[in-house]
C-alpha cells in the first residue's frame, strides 16, 4: 500500500506512514483510469442509458396515445353534458311555459286579483283559463267580475249558463240573486221560490229575498201634511231616514208609527232588515209639500136685509181650522172674536168680515158680507 500523501510504501498492518507520519488512507494501489474497470463501467453505463432512453421514448409514445384517447373521451363527456343541459333547459322552459299557461295556474292568478278586488286583471286571467277549459267554476267567477264591474246583464248570462247545465250550482244561484237584488227585480226573485230548489238555494233565497217596505203614499207634490205609513209584507223590521241618506240598522230610525211630513221637501229612504240582521235594498220617495192658505168660509145666509132676528152660520172644509170675525168692516185677526156657534145679526147696517186660520197658522183672505137688520 502506498501513502496517499507522499506515495511511500507502507507495510501491511501499519497505520501511520513511516516517511511523512500521516495516518494511513485506505487507497488502492492501482489507477482506475489505467485499468479496464473504468472503461467497462462507462460502457455499461452507456448501455443502461441507451436502454433507458429507448424505454422513455417508447413510454412517451404510449403516454401520448393514452392522453389523446383520454382527451377524446373527455370531449365526448363534455359534449354529452352540454347536450344534456340543453335538453334539460328546454324541458324546464317548456314545463314552465306549460305551467304558466295551464288552466290551474291562470285560474289561481285570477283568484289572486279577484281577492284584491282588481276585477279587470282577474277577468283577463279567468277568460284565459276559460279558453283552456270551460268549467262552471271559471264561468261563475267571470260572472262575479262582471257583476262588480256593474255589467249586470252580462253577469246574469254567465250565471244562467252555469245553471242551465247544473241547476243545483249554489254559487251560480247566488250570483243570480245578487243581480236581481241589485236591479231590485223582486218579482223575478220571488218567482224563483216556485221552482225546484235545493235546500242550500232555498236558504240563499230567504237571505236575499228581502222585499222593500211599502209606502202608503207615493212621492209627489202636496199642499198639506202627509201622514205616511210603512209596511213590510214579510213582517221584517223597517229602518228609515228623512234626509235622503242611506238607512241601516245602526244609523236609521226604527219605524214604529206613522210619519208626519210637513211643509218643505222631504226624501224618505227605508229598508227592511230580516231576523238575521241582513238588510234589503233601499227604496225612497220624495215629498214636496207646499202649504196653501185656506179658502173662503161659507156664510148662511150670505147677506141681506132682515126685519126679524136672524143668525148667521159660518162653516169651512178646512180641518182643525179656527174662524174669526168682526162686524165693523175691519179685517179680523187671531185676536178677534172666534166663531164657535151661529151668531146673531146686530141691529143696523153691518158688514160681517170673516177669516179662517188653519192648523199651520195660515190665514185665508177676508170674506165680507152686508147684513141689515131693521126691526
What does this structure look like?
The protein is an alpha+beta fold and 375 residues long. Among the domains are: 106 residues, Serine Threonine Protein Phosphatase 5, Tetratricopeptide repeat (Alpha Horseshoe); 76 residues, Immunoglobulins (Immunoglobulin-like), CATH 2.60.40.10; 76 residues, Immunoglobulin-like (Sandwich), CATH 2.60.40. The protein is 39% helix and 20% strand. The protein contains 8 helices and 17 strands. The strands form 5 sheets. Strands 2-9-8-5-6 form a 5-stranded mixed beta sheet, with no helix packed on it. Helix 4 runs parallel beside helix 6. The N and C termini lie far apart (210 Å). The model has no long low-confidence stretch (mean pLDDT 87).
List keywords for this structure.
375 residues; alpha+beta; Serine Threonine Protein Phosphatase 5, Tetratricopeptide repeat; Immunoglobulin-like; 5-stranded mixed sheet; 39% helix; rod-shaped
